[in-house]
C-alpha cells in the first residue's frame, strides 16, 4: 500500500513555531514529532511506501526522514517549485502512483485505521473517499423555522451536527487524469469538479480521536494531552531502529545535517 503525505505548507497559523521548523516536524511531547507519529502508524498498518510532497523547509524534512528504511518504508519525495495547494502536487506523480492510494495532510493526529480506509475506498469504486468526523456547533440563540412569514417551529439553542473532512483521503489515480502537472488545485475544488461531472465522492465516517494541528491552541492541546494520547496514537510494536528519530534531538540533528535553519 502506498501513501502520499502533503508536507509542503508554511504553517502560517502556527507561527512563530513554524519559522524554523516545518509543521510536520513540530515536536509533540518530549520524544516524537507529528511526522514521526504518522510514519509509525502507516508502517504499523501495512503501508510499504510513502511519497512526501515538500516545499517550505523541505531540506529539513529530507534530512529528518531520509529514505524511510528506519520505519521499514520506501520513501521518495516530490518537491514543489511553487505552491500547488493540496491536490496539485499529485498531478506530476500520475506515472508513479498505484491505481489506489492514500493521501493525507502532514499535520494530523488520529487513530484512524489508514489501511481500512484505503481498502474501503478500493472496494467502493469511488473516485475519491473522504474520511469524515462529526462536529457539533451550538447556536446561542433561539432558532425560528419560518414559512411564508409565519413561525412554524422553534428550537432553543440547538446543537447542529455535521460531518467535516479530516484531511485523509482514499484516491484513485484515474481521478488525476484530467489535470496537467503544475496546476494548483485544492481538495475543495476537486470535490466540486467531481460533483459537476456527476461523480459523488464516498465518505468514511470515523468516531475516534482526530486533531488537526492548525492553530497554536491545537498544538498546545496535543502537547498537554500527549501522555494520555500516546497509547492510542502509537500502539505497542517495533519502532524505527534509530531512537533519535522523531525526538526533539532527532529534529535538531536533522537541522544540523541539512545546514538550513530557515
Protein described:
The protein is built from 7 helices and 13 strands. The chain is α/β, with parallel strands linked by helices and 262 residues long. It has one domain (2-124, 167-258): Spore Coat Polysaccharide Biosynthesis Protein SpsA, Chain A, CATH 3.90.550. The strands form 4 sheets. It has a 7-stranded mixed beta sheet with strand order 5-4-1-6-11-8-12, with helices on one face. A two-stranded antiparallel sheet has the order 2-3. Helix 2 (58-65) packs across helix 7. The two termini are 33 Å apart. The model is unreliable at 237-249 and 251-262 (pLDDT under 50).
Short description:
The protein has 262 residues and is of the alpha/beta class.
Structural class: alpha/beta
Sheet with most strands: 7 strands, mixed
Helicity level, as a percent range?
A: 25-40%
| CATH class bucket | Alpha Beta
Q: What distance lies between the first and last C-alpha atoms, to the nearest angstrom?
A: 33 Å
Write the CATH architecture name: Alpha-Beta Complex
Binned strand content: 25-35%
SSE arrangement, N to C? EEEHEHEEEHEEEEHEEHHH
The tally of beta strands, per DSSP, is 13
Tell me the radius of gyration.
20 Å
Number of helices: 7
Shape: globular
Number of domains as seen in the coordinates = 1
- Could you state the CATH homologous superfamily? Spore Coat Polysaccharide Biosynthesis Protein SpsA, Chain A
Strand order of the largest sheet: 5-4-1-6-11-8-12
Mean pLDDT: 82
> Which residues sit in consecutive blocks of at least 5 with pLDDT less than 50?
237-249, 251-262
The CATH topology is given as Spore Coat Polysaccharide Biosynthesis Protein SpsA, Chain A
Amino acid at each position: 500500500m502506498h501513501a502520499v503525505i502533503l508536507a509542503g505548507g508554511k504553517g502560517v497559523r502556527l507561527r512563530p513555531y513554524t519559522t524554523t521548523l516545518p509543521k510536520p516536524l513540530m515536536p509533540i511531547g518530549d520524544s516524537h514529532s507529528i511526522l514521526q507519529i504518522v510514519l509509525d502508524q502507516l508502517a504499523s498498518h501495512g503501508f510499504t511506501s510513502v511519497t512526501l510532497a515538500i516545499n517550505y523547509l523541505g531540506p529539513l524534512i529530507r534530512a529528518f526522514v531520509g529514505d524511510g528504511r528506519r520505519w521499514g518504508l520506501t520513501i521518495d519525495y516530490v518537491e514543489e517549485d511553487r505552491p500547488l495547494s493540496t491536490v496539485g502536487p499529485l498531478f506530476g506523480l500520475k506515472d508513479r502512483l498505484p491505481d489506489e492510494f492514500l493521501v493525507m495532510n502532514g499535520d494530523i493526529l488520529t487513530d484512524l485505521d489508514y489501511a481500512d480506509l484505503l481498502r474501503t475506498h478500493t472496494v467502493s469504486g469511488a473516485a475519491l473517499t473522504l474520511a469524515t468526523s462529526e462536529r457539533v456547533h451550538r447556536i446561542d440563540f433561539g432558532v425560528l423555522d419560518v414559512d411564508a412569514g409565519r413561525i412554524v417551529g422553534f428550537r432553543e439553542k440547538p446543537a447542529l451536527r455535521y460531518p467535516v473532512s479530516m484531511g485523509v483521503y482514499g484516491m484513485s489515480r484515474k481521478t488525476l487524469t484530467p489535470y496537467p502537472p503544475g496546476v494548483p488545485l485544492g481538495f475543495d475544488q476537486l470535490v466540486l469538479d467531481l460533483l459537476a461531472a456527476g461523480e459523488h465522492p464516498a465518505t468514511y465516517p470515523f468516531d475516534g480521536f482526530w486533531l488537526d494541528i492548525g492553530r497554536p491552541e491545537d498544538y498546545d492541546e496535543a502537547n498537554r494531552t500527549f501522555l494520555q494520547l500516546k497509547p492510542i496514537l502509537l500502539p505497542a510494536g517495533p519502532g524505527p531502529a534509530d531512537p533519535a528519530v522523531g525526538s526533539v534531538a532527532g529534529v535538531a540533528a536533522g537541522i544540523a545535517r541539512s545546514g538550513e535553519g530557515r
